[in-house]
Amino acid sequence: MGGSAGTAAFEIARVHPKLRCVVQDFASLQKQFTEITPLDLVGRVTFQGHDFFTEQPVKGAAVYFLRQVLHDWPDKYAQRIIRNLVPAMQQGNRLVIMDRVVPPRGVLPPALERLNTMMDLEMMLLHNSRERSIDDWQALVTGADSRFYLKGFGPPEAVGGVQVIEFVLG
């Protein structure tokens, strides 16, 4: 979800040749998606217009991937987006979130701490949201549905940057 015109899905599909991807975003992006879809991925990476504030239409996918979708939504709306996925999911399915993870204070050099603070203020001022620590991400997702559990996150070298956070529906 939030796949824009599909560029990230194209790269993921190339690395995982048996994977099928459905890119979901505003229906108005379908034309751009169609124009830039590599010929070798036609049929394996498809596009579907979807409003993530409605129930997820793709049922039983092994993985639901949200790439920088939730960071600029307040918790109540981010949880609503997640809750709209749950009816489509089965036990053992994964919710993978690729977004910023803010490390605990004191981990980064002072200049990067200030940058994190600035980005957090920007999220608050522009979107009534905030940057989230791994504990915040866990609380957000389990607050949407208590059956989710955190499987892991990383890469570790992305401290204070974009990371992949994996949850499993138990």
What is the number of independent domains? 2
Shape: globular
CATH superfamily of the largest domain: Vaccinia Virus protein VP39
The percent range for helix content is: 25-40%
Q: How would you spell out the order of helices and strands?
A: HEHEEHEHHEE
State the CATH class of the largest domain: Alpha Beta
CATH architecture of the largest domain: 3-Layer(aba) Sandwich
Rg over alpha carbons: 17 Å
Report what the structure shows.
It is a single chain. The chain has 170 residues and is an alpha/beta fold. The protein has two domains: 1-50, no CATH class; 61-169, Rossmann fold. It is 32% helix and 22% strand. The chain has a four-stranded mixed beta sheet, with helices on one face. A two-stranded parallel sheet has the order 1-2. β3 (63-67), α3 (75-83) and β4 (94-100) form a beta-alpha-beta unit. It starts with 6 loop residues before the first helix and ends with a strand. The model has no long low-confidence stretch (mean pLDDT 91).
Summarize the structure.
By secondary structure, this protein is an alpha/beta fold. The protein has helices at residues 7-15, 30-36, 75-83, 110-127, 134-144; strands spanning 21-25, 45-49, 63-67, 94-100, 148-154, 162-169.
Which features does this protein show?
Rossmann fold, two-stranded parallel ribbon, 5 helices, alpha/beta
Write the layout of secondary structure elements.
Blueprint: H1 7-15, E1 21-25, H2 30-36, E2 45-49, E3 63-67, H3 75-83, E4 94-100, H4 110-127, H5 134-144, E5 148-154, E6 162-169
Parallel strand pairs: 1-2, 3-4
Antiparallel strand pairs: 4-6, 5-6
Helix pairs in contact: 3-5
